[in-house]
């Protein structure tokens, strides 16, 4: 009975520090991709002596930052390192984290989940255990998987984590009747300014944003981050026949832009813009995902229009849908897509309601 009680106390302690590691890892959202946003905590005698999370892409990993934050390095030989994802065992842009852990003779490592990357995939754990390190795996595994969902989707499904996003009126329209554009060519804002700011926060957190041709031609959006501090996502534009001219905002080269087209004639391409070709006579969602995967894009927000959103839903290629329902009425226009997914949350943002669905 005493041994069982000790076991549960140990598990609860492990969960406490893995939760803190997840909290730390979130600080890397929007900056670490295509690397995962990992968090790490180092504990000595039930006291945290070091913390770290993954630096912006190309910089040190979470374990390196946590170890470097420890003032008295001699304590590491009696400490436990907690990390949300298996320490890497290969050379990439930085040396292997498993080697650093062993170099400092850290005797115990607690890991949230194994790394599915083919260059790691248990090799980090094997290296640690072979050197006598005690390794515990699978603490708060579900929570770590949710936290690392972008990286895991990219590694396991060979595509980015796909977020569908749109706003619709109270009477179910995603855009006004096309005739209204003749008198008012400016974008029609359905949601309130606070919802708009939240959308820009999301843009700073994801690697890419994708829209279809009609959305570009009708709204001429900038697709950058303006209402929130942070980086702008890679702009991905579907332009089958290259109708989008140089005067459109997305062609200003201020942000990396990828145009997906069927036109092979490179004389029609603009300098400073990336082009990829697909076959528009075949289902396009999977082809787009393959291109984004090749460009190391681990997450993308699909912002519209209705046809583009429906294309991803019909193909079953989406993970999350974020839908704003506003109080405006259009009476007629372009109908919003109908989502089939699991409602995860519902939140009021002044006059708007935000619904989050997952594709379970």
TrEMBL record:
The keyword Transmembrane helix does not apply. It catalyses: 5-amino-6-(5-phospho-D-ribitylamino)uracil + NADP(+) = 5-amino-6-(5-phospho-D-ribosylamino)uracil + NADPH + H(+); 2,5-diamino-6-hydroxy-4-(5-phosphoribosylamino)-pyrimidine + H2O + H(+) = 5-amino-6-(5-phospho-D-ribosylamino)uracil + NH4(+). It comes from the Bacteria. Transmembrane segments: none annotated. It holds the Pfam family dCMP_cyt_deam_1. Pathway: Cofactor biosynthesis; riboflavin biosynthesis; 5-amino-6-(D-ribitylamino)uracil from GTP: step 2/4; Cofactor biosynthesis; riboflavin biosynthesis; 5-amino-6-(D-ribitylamino)uracil from GTP: step 3/4. GO terms for molecular function: 5-amino-6-(5-phosphoribosylamino)uracil reductase activity; diaminohydroxyphosphoribosylaminopyrimidine deaminase activity. Its EC number is 3.5.4.26, 1.1.1.193. Residues 12-128 form the CMP/dCMP-type deaminase domain. Keywords: Hydrolase, Metal-binding, Multifunctional enzyme, NADP, Oxidoreductase, Riboflavin biosynthesis, Zinc. Binds 1 zinc ion. PROSITE patterns: CYT_DCMP_DEAMINASES_1 (PS00903), CYT_DCMP_DEAMINASES_2 (PS51747). Its cofactor is Zn(2+). Signal peptide: none annotated. In the C-terminal section; belongs to the HTP reductase family. In the N-terminal section; belongs to the cytidine and deoxycytidylate deaminase family. Converts 2,5-diamino-6-(ribosylamino)-4(3h)-pyrimidinone 5'-phosphate into 5-amino-6-(ribosylamino)-2,4(1h,3h)-pyrimidinedione 5'-phosphate. This is Riboflavin biosynthesis protein RibD. The lineage of its organism: Bacteria, Pseudomonadati, Bacteroidota, Flavobacteriia, Flavobacteriales.
């Amino acid at each position: 009975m005493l041994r069982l009680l000790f076991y549960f106390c140990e598990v609860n302690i492990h969960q406490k520090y893995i939760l803190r590691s997840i909290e730390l890892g979130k600080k890397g959202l929007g900056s670490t991709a295509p690397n995962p946003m990992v968090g790490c905590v180092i504990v000595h005698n039930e006291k945290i002596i070091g913390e770290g999370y993954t630096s912006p892409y190309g910089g040190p990993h979470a374990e390196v930052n946590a170890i470097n934050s420890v003032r008295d390095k001699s304590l590491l030989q009696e400490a436990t390192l907690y990390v949300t994802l298996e320490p890497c065992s290969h050379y990439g842009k930085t040396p292997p984290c498993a080697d650093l852990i062993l170099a400092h003779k850290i005797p115990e490592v607690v890991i949230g989940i194994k790394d599915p990357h083919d260059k790691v995939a248990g090799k980090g754990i094997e290296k640690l255990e072979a050197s006598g390190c005690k390794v515990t795996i699978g603490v708060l595994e579900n929570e770590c998987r949710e936290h690392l969902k972008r990286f895991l989707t990219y590694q396991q499904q060979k595509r980015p984590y796909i977020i569908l996003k749109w706003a619709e009126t109270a009477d179910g329209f995603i855009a006004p009747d096309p005739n209204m554009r003749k008198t008012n060519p400016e974008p029609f804002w359905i949601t309130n300014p606070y919802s708009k700011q939240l959308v820009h926060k999301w843009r700073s957190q994801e690697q890419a944003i994708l829209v279809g041709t009609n959305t570009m031609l009708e709204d001429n959006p900038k697709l950058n981050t303006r209402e929130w501090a942070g980086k702008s996502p890679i702009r991905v534009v579907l332009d089958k026949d290259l109708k989008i001219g140089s005067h459109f905002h997305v062609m200003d080269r201020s942000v990396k832009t990828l145009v997906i087209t069927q036109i092979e004639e490179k004389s029609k391409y603009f300098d400073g813009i990336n082009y990829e070709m697909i076959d528009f006579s075949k289902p396009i969602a999977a082809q787009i995902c393959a291109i984004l995967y090749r460009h190391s894009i681990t997450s993308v927000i699909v912002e519209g229009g209705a046809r583009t959103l429906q294309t991803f839903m019909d193909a079953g290629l989406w993970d999350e849908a974020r839908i704003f329902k506003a109080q405006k009425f259009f009476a007629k226009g372009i109908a919003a897509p109908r989502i089939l997914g699991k409602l995860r949350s519902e939140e009021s943002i002044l006059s708007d309601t935000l619904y989050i669905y997952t594709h379970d």
